[in-house]
Amino acid sequence: ATPPxxxxxxxxxxxxxxxxxxxxxxxxxxxxxxxxPSFILSGGGRFSALAQVARTVCRRAEREALRxxxxxxxxxxxxxxxxxxSDFLFVLGRHLARTFGEEEPLWETPxxxxx
Length: 115
Prior knowledge:
58% of the residues lie in helices and 0% in strands. It is an all-alpha fold.
């Protein structure tokens, strides 16, 4: 949200190290989660649903930042961070579901529902 001419005023800028922190944290959580046989639907539980809402907002911010690149320079680290943050929030939702015993409703095709 900071124009390039004011970048020197940012107290904690987005860096590659911050992106790496998200990735390492996700890797730690993923180790304890089962593989997904299909997409997860939101709403399995309160905590995981809130993480999915936050992920949706983050994806919207990512799309807006990408659109902004048509008008001005956006640091690559910012785009990478928003992308990884949305993935982080997805994994956080799964981690919270497991921690609090929440359901992870899976998407089923119409044919699977008939079985």
